[in-house]
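Action item from last meeting closed. Structure (116 res):
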C-alpha cells in the first residue's frame, strides 16, 4: 500500500491550498512554488504514486485530469496564448511528490521544452 502524501490532505481539505476546482475524480489547486505566472496542479483524488502505477481502471480519472486542465486554463485566461502540461515520473523525471499530478503552467512564453 502506497503512503499518502500531503496532496491527499489537500484533497480532503485538511491542509490549506488554493483549490480552483474539485469533482468526484480530480482536484486542481495552485502550486505553492509557482514556476510561471500560472502554475496549477491537477491531481486524481485517489492516490496513484507514479505514472508507472497507472492501470486501465484509472483511465476515467486520468482523462478527467486533461479536460479539467483545459477548463482551468480557460478560466485563468491562458488557453488562447497556450500553456504546457507536464507530468514527472520518478527520479529522472524530477518527481518530488509521489501522488501523480499534472502541472498546468503558462502565462508567459515557456521556451524550449527541456533544459539542456
Ligand atoms: P513534482 O516535482 O513532484 O512533479 O512536483 C511537485 C510540485 O508540488 C512542486 O511544483 C511543488 O512546488 C508542489 N508542492 C509541494 N508541496 C506543496 C504544497 O504543500 N502545496 C502546494 N500547493 N503545492 C506543493
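Sequence:
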Amino acid at each position: 500500500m502506497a503512503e499518502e502524501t500531503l496532496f491527499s490532505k489537500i484533497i480532503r481539505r485538511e491542509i490549506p491550498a488554493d483549490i480552483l476546482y474539485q469533482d468526484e475524480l480530480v482536484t486542481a489547486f495552485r502550486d505553492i512554488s509557482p514556476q510561471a505566472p500560472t502554475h496549477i496542479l491537477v491531481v486524481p483524488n485517489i492516490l496513484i504514486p507514479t505514472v508507472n502505477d497507472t492501470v486501465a481502471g484509472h483511465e476515467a480519472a486520468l482523462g478527467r485530469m486533461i479536460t479539467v486542465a483545459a477548463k482551468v486554463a480557460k478560466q485563468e485566461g491562458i488557453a488562447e496564448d497556450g500553456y504546457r502540461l507536464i507530468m514527472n515520473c520518478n527520479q529522472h523525471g524530477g518527481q518530488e511528490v509521489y501522488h501523480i499530478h499534472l502541472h498546468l503552467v503558462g502565462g508567459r512564453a515557456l521556451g524550449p521544452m527541456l533544459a539542456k
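Note appended to the action item: Residues 6, 17, 29-33, 41, 88, 94-97 surround guanosine-5'-monophosphate (CB under 6 Å).
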